[in-house]
Amino acid sequence: MIKALFATPALFLLALLPQTPSAPDAAANPPLVIPAAAAAVPNPVKSTPENQAFAKKVYGYDCAMCHGPKGDGKGEMVDSMKLTMKDFSNPATLSGRTDGELFWVIKNGVGQMPGETGRQTDAQIWAMVHYVRGFSK
Ligand code: HEC
């Protein structure tokens, strides 16, 4: 019993020792692993002037601070959060991605990017996929 009382604080101190820091880049951009089933889902929502106007508004609130108002990855948070961003205005950037993949990332997030789950409906997120693709058109 007395031994146990002395052992516990020792373990606690061990936990406080500095951990080996991980590379900052790896923390900011973890590999994007999208389930194959999610990637195969086609976009069930057609682009309309109404849903694109809504997507533009939400993008301004929830996305532009990182991805930039033009989708070029030059958002105002990028430096302070040490983010490495892609340029969505370059057609090559998202050409290899399916709509299902973009939907999955926007819904679930990746690394320091929060997902839109609970903020937008699935239909609104599908409409946002069209909006994000529009940056390279
Ligand atoms: C806190 C910063 C941040 C916010 C806010 C954010 N993102 Fe991201 N997003 C990232 C980072 C970092 C990545 C990974 C690097 C990259 O793809 O640019 C990423 C990746 C993505 C990708 C995947 C790109 C690829 O690799 O194919 C999409 C699509 C995307 N974001 C869209 C959005 C949309 C739409 C919103 C708003 C609903 C949003 N993001 C909000 C930081 C952010």
Biggest sheet statistics: 2 strands, antiparallel
Q: What series of H and E elements makes up the topology?
A: HHHHHHHEEH
Classify the helix fraction into a percent range: 40-55%
Determine the mean pLDDT. 87
Number of strands: 2
Shape: globular
Instruction: Write out the CATH superfamily name.
Output: Cytochrome c-like domain
Sum this structure up briefly:
With 137 residues, the protein is mainly alpha-helical. It has helices at residues 2-16, 24-28, 36-39, 49-62, 64-67, 91-95, 99-108, 122-133, and strands spanning 109-110, 113-114.
What does this structure look like?
There is one protein chain. By secondary structure, this protein is an all-alpha fold. It has one domain (36-136): Cytochrome Bc1 Complex, Chain D, domain 2. 50% of the residues lie in helices and 3% in strands. The protein has helices at residues 2-16, 24-28, 36-39, 49-62, 64-67, 91-95, 99-108, 122-133; strands at residues 109-110, 113-114. It has a two-stranded antiparallel ribbon with strand order 1-2. Helix 7 (99-108) crosses helix 8 (122-133). The longest helix has 15 residues, at 2-16. It is globular and about 65 Å long. The mean pLDDT is 87. The structure holds heme C. Residues 29, 32, 62-63, 65-67, 73, 77, 83, 85-86, 94, 97, 102, 105-106, 110-113, 116, 128, 132 line the site of heme C (HEC).
Q: What keywords describe this structure?
A:
two-stranded antiparallel sheet, binds heme C, Cytochrome Bc1 Complex, Chain D, domain 2, mainly alpha, globular, 137 residues, 8 helices, 2 strands
Write the layout of secondary structure elements.
Layout (H helix, E strand, L loop, with lengths): L1 H15 L7 H5 L7 H4 L9 H14 L1 H4 L23 H5 L3 H10 E2 L2 E2 L7 H12 L4
Helix pairs in contact: 4-8, 7-8
Heme C binds next to α5, α7 and α8.
